[in-house]
Every structure is written in structure tokens, then in C-alpha cells.
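This week, think about what follows.
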Amino acid sequence: MAFEKLTLHSIEARPVVLKLERPVIARIATITDWPLILIDLKTEEGVIGRAYLEPYVVKSMRYLVPALEDMGAMLKGQKVAPTEFYEAARKSLHFVGYEGLAMIAVSGLDMAAWDAVAKAASMPLCVLLGGSIGPVKSYNSNGLWLKEPQAVAEEAIELVDEGGFVGLKLRLGRDNPRDDLATIDAVRRAVGDDMALMIDFNQSLDLAEALRRCHMLDDLGLAWIEEPIVYDNFEGYVQLARELKTPLQIGENFYGPRDLYKALSMNACDLVMPDFMRIGGVTGWLRAAGIAGAAGIPMSTHLYPEVGAHVMRVNETAHWLEWQDWAEPILQKPYEIKNSQLHIPNVPGVGLDWNEDVVRSNLYDG
């Protein structure tokens, strides 16, 4: 099979804002509008690599879109090589640091570059990476925010039915911890004892409160407790991991593989779940996965279920894929979710094509 060499022509980045069907209602924030940056990496040969970013804060797109366009201008005329683009883009922003918006922009570029080279090779990304097409075990993370216990329980039943799920994530952090316990109990009664329940505090607690609350949950048979304290308090996570019986999950805020290495070297967690826009796209994920694999630490995804499914097929310690449909309105053909598994389509690349009608009607002009 011939592998077509690609030359970068330009990068088009379009900001879009969608309304969430189930708004985010967490202790630290309420989010009703969901920002997306659609990235088209255009080549001289006509192949287009596609990716999207979900940067949480709508106004952040004012800075990320120009950064992506600048990277396209910087790399114009060069052979499309994802790892080389990754390093060049990072180094171009060296003096403002490798984290934050800089890494998010690099990650978007990287994911689009990998999509392009996989398309040029006429292979699904997972096959290009040495794996095969197949299903990926997934849990539903589409809701279960801070609402009344019975409302959360009723929504849990809806979420199970969205794809025959055997795992759900619910969020905690209500003012009274007894209300959190009541919510877990209501959900457990609604979906049964065999359902894997993941708990996420969304960094909403200080260490003292986290110690108290997490110990209250420690005998409930939870799949994990996620981010009870601020993401960069590794010392606090060391103490929590040492004291808790329930597995401690962190990682969506790792900025690059070195953060993952630091957390594991400190014994700050039992599980990791990097986010693609922070870990460094596909390139950063693969490097982080090698570290987690060598340490024997189960690795799950955060957001970006489409690209996540592909890398999980080549991940030594693949654990759970987080399924959320928040980007699906802008996709022509969303991935199929069935029997708690996300199914990768047999198409070149990642298989992202934009629904241009939805994109046009939701473009952000702020």
C-alpha cells in the first residue's frame, strides 16, 4: 500500500458554541454553553486532517484560534509528521511555557496531523498505530450533576439506556455530605449493584474536607474517586491515596507526560485518565501511555471519545473510555455506542466529518 507524503498548506480553526442538553452543574461551575474549536489541517495533496478541541471556557477560543493559525503559518510547506509538528509547535511557545493554552493548541494540531497521516495511509488511526478495529469498554458521563437525589437516580436510568451501559459517572460536592450519600444510594437502587459507579468531585474540596468526605465513601464499592482536591496538589493526593481503600483517579489536568510521570513517581494516585487537549494530543498520549504501562497503572480517557477509542486499542493498560456526546451535533456520523462499548468505524483516520449546517448556525463571533 502506497503511503502518500503530505505537505501542510494551512490550518483552519473555527470556533463553535453549542447548548448542552444536560448542563454541567458542579460545585465549582455551572456550564450551559459548550465551546468547540473545529480544526481542518489542509494539505497540498488534498487530504484534510480533522480534530476538535473542547476548551471549557468560551472566551478562551479568542486566543486558541489565532495560536492554531499561527502554527499553520509556521509549518506551511513542511512534510506532515505528527511528532515533528508536536515538538516544533511546543518549542515555538517555549518562552511562555509548555502548559495551559500553549499545550492545548499544540494538542489540537497534533490530533489533526495524526488524522491526516492515517487518512493518507488509508488506515483507521488505531491500525496505523499497530492495533486493530474493535470495541472499547465505555462508561456514560453525560450527566448526573448536582441535582436532587431522586432526579439524579431517574437520569441514571436514562443514561444506562443510551447505550446499554455498565458504568456511570456521577458528581459529588453538595454542601451537605449526607446529600451526596443519599444520591449514591438512590442511584444504586435505581441501576443495581452490578453497575460500576465512578465518583467525581471536580476539584471542589480542600484537603481536610476531602479526607473526611472520601472516608465516608470508602466502603460503598465505588469504581473510583476522582479529583477531590485541586489538580496540582500532588502532595495532598499522596496522602489521600495512602489512606483510602477506594482507587483514586486523577489526570485530566496533566499537562504533558511529565505530569503523569511525576504523579506516579510520588504514588499520588491509583488510576490515571489524561485529557487529550492537555496531555499533548495523540503524541503526548502515547508517551504517557508508555509510562503508565511500565508502572502497571490502569489508564482511562477524558473527553474526546473518538480519538480516545483509537488509542485505547493500542494502550497496554487500557481501562475505561469516558463517553460523552457533547460534540456529536457537529459530526456527520457519530460513533456507535452499544452494549457499553464504543465501536470504531472502518474508515481512514479518526473518521470525523463536520455537519456544516450545525457548524454555520453555531459559529462563535465573540
In short: Residues 127-343 form a domain with the TIM Barrel fold (CATH 3.20.20.120). Residues 100-120 form the longest helix (21 residues). The mean pLDDT is 96. The CA atoms of residues 101 and 151 lie 36 Å apart.
